[in-house]
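By convention, the C-alpha cell line describes the chain's fold. To illustrate:
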Amino acid sequence: MAKKIWVLDTETKGTGANVVPLESTLRKPAGAAEPLYVPPKRAPRPPQPPAPRLPRSFKIVDVTSGEVLAEGVDTRAAIRVLEGLGSVVDVRIYQWDDTTERWILLTLGEHKSLWDYRGKLGPEPASL
C-alpha cells in the first residue's frame, strides 16, 4: 500500500495552518496552468457627426421706446438695422437659442462686435 505524505500547509490567510497531502501543495509547471482568457479589445464606435448649425437669428429692441426694430433677422439684416442708429447702447440685441427656445441677451462686448460691422457690408444684393 502506497504511503501518503502529509505536510503542514501554512499558506492560509490568518486562519491557521492545515495538514494536507503533499500533492496539493506542489506547484504545477507554468505551462500546465490554464491559459488566461483576455477578451479582445472592442472596436471604437464611429464618432457621431455634429448636428448642422442653424443660422443665427437676432432680435433688436430700442431701449428708450421698447419698440422691436427687428425680430428673427439674420446677421446681415441685423447689421443693416444697426446702421441707422446713433449709439451701441441705444439698443438691446438678442440672439435666439434653439436649445432653450428663448431670446438670449448679448453681452456689451458682443453688441460692440456687431456694431463694428456697420458700414462694412457693401451694397445689398439685387433680388432675382
User: Anything to note?
Assistant: The first strand starts at residue 6 and ends at 9. The chain is about 15% helix and 25% strand. The two ends are 111 Å apart (CA to CA).
